[in-house]
Amino acid sequence: MACLVGQWLTTKDATEETQFICDQVKDQVLALTGMNYVAYTAIQYRNQIVAGENFLIKVDVGEDYNHLSVQHLPKVSGDEFVLRGVEQHRAKEDPLLPFTK
After folding, report:
1. Is residue 18 within 8 Å of 28, Cβ to Cβ?
2. Which of 1, 12, 54, 62 is the most core-located residue (most Cβ within 10 A)?
3. Residue range 12-23, pLDDT digits in tens
4. Cα separation, 35 vs 38, whole angstroms
5. Residues 65, 93: Cα–Cα separation, whole Å
6. Alpha-carbon gap, residue 18 to 65, rounded angstroms
7. Given strand 41-49, what is the order of strands in its sheet?
């Protein structure tokens, strides 16, 4: 099945790579939310192929879930993953949908 550039792919279970991405932006998440989470575990993700890759990641933060929007553009930021936004207080069943915040 061909992937169209710019199209969000289906939601998948998180992998070790997904958790690695979450760990890379954790300090950014904590600074943005002002929270110190008891848990921080990637559960699901979606990705979008662009001039690099965008990710939507559902993270179990203990009491509820956060949705992270993360960007990785190697030609712009090298190996760095950049947090684009966080949606807090989401439910486990909430779908991963693109957002801007």
Report:
1. no
2. 54
3. 999 999 999 999
4. 10
5. 10
6. 15
7. 12-13, 41-49, 53-60, 65-72, 82-90
